Amino acid sequence: MNSKGIGAAALFLIGGILGLVSAFSAWWAYSGGGYTISFLPGSNTHESGGGMSATTSYSSLGLGTVGNLYEATLGLAIAGGVLLLIAGLIGFVAAVRSPSGRFRGALMGLGIVGILLLIVAVAMVPAAQPWAVKQGSNSACTGYNGTTPCSGFWGSASQAGTSYTFGAAVGWYLALVGLILGIVAFVLWRSGNRSPRSS
Known about the structure:
The chain has 4 helices and 7 strands; from the N terminus they run αββββααβββα. It has 199 residues and is of the alpha+beta class.
């Protein structure tokens, strides 16, 4: 039994679970004046405050480009999470049974693709969201003192005496941690399989 292989498989599984959970959690939130709007992967936002809680589509808020971004994020997070999960399951079998190199190659391939998909998701949202917000919401870009959602992913601003803060929410951080665990798992798996296989 390969202890490094078992550890790597466990990390792949945890990373995959976090990637999947992130796909159904808010990746960004904007709060101020007792009101919060959260951007979730998929086609809807969640709004809360003032005694109300509602799910609203990006398109109905005039944020269709943001909606497209988060539709892509949903697909990337789910696909990345699933691939890391499968890599973890294969890793457990490989560590216990020491199967053929082809089986190990499948683990490496799935792990690499899963990691790459999460890298794209985690990097794409902070890089593209300010531009996407600017395409659909002039009100989010003007009239503020400070950084606006049109100029940054993280920031704070004030308007008419009310302070606002915004930035990454729990889903983005879950995906980031899942990505890091996937990378650590990959490195651990590689280091545990450098020695020649026994016959």
